[in-house]
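Summary for the steering committee. The consortium agreed at its last meeting that each partner would contribute one worked example illustrating the joint modelling workflow. Our contribution is presented below. We chose a case with several input lines so that the handling of multiple components could be demonstrated. No manual editing was applied between input and output; the record is shown as generated.
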Amino acid sequence: MSLHALKLAPQDCGDCPIRHRAVCARCDGPELAKLEEMKYYRSFEAGQNVVWSGDRMDFVASVVSGIASLTQTMEDGRRQMVGLLLPSDFVGRPGRTIAPYDVTATTDLVMCCFRRKPFEEMMGSTPHVAQRLLEMTLDELDAAREWMLLLGRKTAREKIASLLSILARRDVGLKAKAAKGPISFDLPLTREEMADYLGLTLETVSRQMNALKRDGLVELEEKRRIVVPNFDRLANETGDDSDGGFLS
Amino acid sequence: MSLHALKLAPQDCGDCPIRHRAVCARCDGPELAKLEEMKYYRSFEAGQNVVWSGDRMDFVASVVSGIASLTQTMEDGRRQMVGLLLPSDFVGRPGRTIAPYDVTATTDLVMCCFRRKPFEEMMGSTPHVAQRLLEMTLDELDAAREWMLLLGRKTAREKIASLLSILARRDVGLKAKAAKGPISFDLPLTREEMADYLGLTLETVSRQMNALKRDGLVELEEKRRIVVPNFDRLANETGDDSDGGFLS
DNA sequence: CGATTGCCTTGATCAGGATCAAATGAAAGG
DNA sequence: CCTTTCATTTGATCCTGATCAAGGCAATCG
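What follows is the complete predicted structure of the assembly.
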């Protein structure tokens, strides 16, 4: 089961320019009008910080384009990524003013923001939004739990294979898991970010990437350009059940 | 920051016999009456399975007493606990019929159940419940992310210290972190369950428990009876920030 | 009462990743 | 063009926690 790919499926608004519609269960109606009025955009460039853990955070937002990551850091510098936000994902929680982790733009990033207070009020009066948000949060919780299995029990090789599967599946169009041809995509993460995602060191990530390459499971043309010739064969290395997960 | 303890705080109904009030933002009103009519209880004894991953699950429930655990298992038997449910915690998700992980009674357990369909309908008409559920889910997500940091980056010793801190803090009454005296409590988990929680083997758990004992951070009188003479000293071993976390 | 079972401890050894260190390569800038 | 910088690779070594294997200790049961 993928960590993030599935989240997009139910409400993905495709080319719709108003990606924040993802927060609304229906892409029209009066609540959308209210959201329209409230929204404003913020852009960040790759590497830039959005908020620090402990900062006051007076807005909630959804990702329009690019990738953001949530990370937790220990005093001595050990770091663990705890969330990877793709377009249409949501950050920030109603009812909490202090950010519990760092939010960073991993690639160039555009977010669609709403000030928290009015957003909360709107939520109170429009049950659709609260319900949609609940759904999204439950999906994220499931993803987090899958991730916990990865962190706690998988080998380095399985971790890498899992991450690559997730990214490959996402790039191929979500449910087209029947896609039999080769899949190619650009890695949006550095080796270090991959390491933070997987609970490894960057050296181990590098070594295992090359091991997968040696074994013919992926091709690495340009360090960040990945080709997966046979998705199922890669998926076999993840340690996950073969079926690929199920929902609803 | 504790993983589970904090979840109880905002809505803990104390001695209230109707613990499932935790799902309702207000412990009265018409929605409670509806919940009252719908509820039914189920009991399990320690070790008994509640649902298997992949099973159809036609109910949602909240824990009345005892402890339940959520675990994920790989084909080869590697297991990772991904949730520990304490009284007033909620299981099951509206809109999903298939259980994504095993639910097991860790101790004797009583759950207050609601059939899923009517519960969902009720949720649609009573925004309070949806909102309360959203809050609880967000708390659980935060807990899961803290847990990810533990699994991905902490040493065995830090992991054990973290778990014991969580349990100690819970038993002492949640926010009474100023409790300066010794704290004592019964471990609700076997060494193996602790290992599954922490992403370790039971041998390592055993060794590190005894290491903490040797270092005077905990006393082990009866294998399952823990005394923490100085909570702050234990908390220093967790690798977490000293302050103990913050909310809202 | 001895035998069984479940849970925990302890010891010896091994190995998967971490760590430390250096080299490579590519892109950006002066 | 040379230098700098950043991401990545590669190598050598170390160490934490896993693995394999006994043994201890209560509680339960025949």
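The first helix of chain B runs from residue 5 to 8. Residues 46 and 107 of chain B are 4 Å apart (CA to CA).
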